[in-house]
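Changelog excerpt

This revision adds worked examples to the README so contributors can see how folded entries look when concatenated. The first example is reproduced verbatim below.
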Amino acid sequence: MESLYKLYSNSLYNYGSKFTNDQDLIKECIQELFVTLWTRRAHLSEPANVRNYLFKAFRLSLFKKGNMIQKQVRYEEAEHYAFHASITIEDEIIIGEDNAALQSRLQATLEQLTARQREAIFLKFYEGLNYEEIAEVMDISVKGAYKVMGRAIDALRDKLDHNDFLILLALFSSKLFR
């Protein structure tokens, strides 16, 4: 259990920080997740993918604790469902004064995406999950994961000029191959 905690706690914290700025809530949910796993270990079966299981369980715990889920309300329709994606642009990629202006444009464009689209982008490009894993974590179908990602990429392409879009794709690619 300790090795699982050490391996995944930072990623879970990073993921949780995209939903809320409440650091205590994030830490509490991570702690509660691992305590629950420990106390219920005799009753749990081994998941097919431990990372996906932890992300999904953490996400659900965070939503419940943060009163972010209401019964019978679809995530896409919930105004309080907020997933905040952020971009860090490394100095090696963009040099000079244009860096701040570009970062501002890219961030503003990401903020125009829906919360589900930002979450899918984060899971794909920052956590390196494949579409099946994204679907599992977000509790949607694999087809739905492709649709959310496709719509996010289309929206980014529409909202950014060609050069900014290419830079954003390069940044996403560098996240995949780090």
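The second example, added in the same revision:
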Amino acid sequence: MISTLGAALAPGIAILSYFYLKDKYETEPLHMVVKSFITGILLVFPVMVVQFGFQEELELGVFAQSYFLAGFLEEFFKWFMIYYTVYKHVEFNEPYDGIVYAAAVSLGFATLENFFYLLSHGLSTAFFRALLPVSSHGLFGVLMGYYLGKAKFVADPRKKRIYLGMSLGIPVLLHGTYDFILMAGSDVWPWLIIPFMVILWAVAIRRSSAALDRSIAAAFRRHYEQEEAEKI
């Protein structure tokens, strides 16, 4: 049990640490990040109940299972919790903060899913789970957080609505596509999932760097304004 728990926790903690420590200028309060991670863990249970209810009542094909049961439901629950617990919080004061908190929620969710899977299928699947399901959840969270950060700090109400829509729509689309590839068949999916994950990592790292640059610029601007105010 201890080894299974460690194997389930390790990839999520490692990926979250990478994005958390990337912000060297104004690191988010650790208790807030841990709280977001635990929120993601707790989200697994209501999502499982809702997914089970739809599976019992409806005969869903591969497309609906991928884009609705997995993509929409899981990403919507994450987005909803992030929006109402973090997005409006005073600690969300820089564009990069959205990435940290959304990644924390997503990786908390992925960690408990990973634990349940390893309990059922054994530790032999741990490496595969770390490379694909856990990291993909984290990267969906990075992109969700990137657009939440864009929405938070844009003045134009129309652009704010667009970015909020993108913060949910893009992770749903990517998550659904990921699941659809895995359900495509044993002979096909390895040739599709590898380039998908490479591109996903590349885009997530580029977006996180762009958000970090904006956060650094905002931090210097606040520091300059504070110094000017003190001179008066």
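Reviewer comment on example two: The chain has a mean pLDDT of 89. Residues 10 and 171 are 23 Å apart (CA to CA).
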